[in-house]
Design goal:
The chain has about 220 residues and is of the alpha/beta class. The chain has one domain (about 10-220): Vaccinia Virus protein VP39 (Rossmann fold). It has helices at about 15-30, 50-55, 65-75, 105-115, 130-135, 155-165, 180-185, 190-205, and strands spanning about 40, 60-65, 90-95, 115-125, 170, 215-220. The protein has a 6-stranded mixed β-sheet with strand order 2-1-3-4-6-5, with helices on both faces. Strand 1, helix 2 (about 50-55) and strand 2 (about 60-65) form a beta-alpha-beta unit. Helix 1 (about 15-30) packs across helix 2 (about 50-55). The radius of gyration is 18 Å and the shape is globular. The two termini are about 25 Å apart.
């Protein structure tokens, strides 16, 4: 099963921006899970999130199938990632920009559900198909990528987690955005189209029409 990326992908690089993004993801996890415990990062890439989680006091491990990414995790952070799912149970499992790459998301979600403890929590980050940017940009939407097999709405992602055995689903109330006012002033035609798409998305998809990348939480 090809879980995520090719070894030459930009995801397996190291940079301060990647580490900063990983720290922000950890803050999102800790806003929901107040107590630190065992954490599995599925599709760990070069290990940035595992690295910051360990530094933050979590008992964290990562799973990754790219041999290049596994080697880079050792080079960048001194972390040994796993290439197969362990049989252990975890308090938290994370999938950052992974679920859209899977050829059978429900099958993988079932495997992860079986690895969560009694009150375990799964975090997933993926693009939101029901958002104004996708409407505005059409075929040029930045999240239309060749290695993305699926595009999710909150409803379809919730349905996938339910089929996999999860009992609760919610979106974090984060990453809301509106058209740039500066760009609206310098490019009025773009601004008219952007604000129209924004208003229509807010009306059609209240609560998440202004979220381009969503972070979902599902409980075991």
């Amino acid at each position: 099963m090809n879980w995520r990326w090719s070894s030459g992908d930009r995801y397996v690089t190291d940079s301060e921006s990647k580490r900063r993004a990983a720290r922000e993801k950890l803050r999102q996890v800790e806003a929901v899970c107040r107590e630190r415990g065992r954490l599995l990062d599925f599709g760990a890439g070069s290990g940035a999130f595992v690295h910051v989680s360990i530094d933050g006091g979590w008992d964290a491990v990562g799973v990754e199938q790219s041999e290049s990414a596994i080697e880079r995790a050792k080079t960048y952070y001194g972390i040994s990632l796993l290439d197969t799912l362990p049989d252990d149970r975890f308090d938290v499992i994370t999938m950052w920009d992974v679920v859209e790459h899977l050829r059978d998301p429900v099958a993988v979600l079932r495997l992860l559900h079986a690895r969560l403890g009694k009150n375990g929590v799964l975090f997933m980050e993926t693009g939101n198909y029901e958002n104004w940017r996708r409407v505005l940009e059409g075929d040029r939407w930045g999240l239309y990528l060749l290695d993305h097999h699926f595009y999710f709405t909150p409803h379809s992602l919730e349905a996938a987690t339910a089929r996999a055995g999860f009992s609760a689903f919610s979106l974090l109330d984060i990453d809301h955005s509106a058209p740039s006012l500066r760009r609206t002033l310098t490019r009025p035609r773009w601004g008219m189209r952007a604000w129209r798409a924004y208003r229509n998305a807010q009306k059609a998809w209240p609560g998440h029409g202004d979220i381009n990348v969503m972070v979902a939480v599902a409980k075991a």
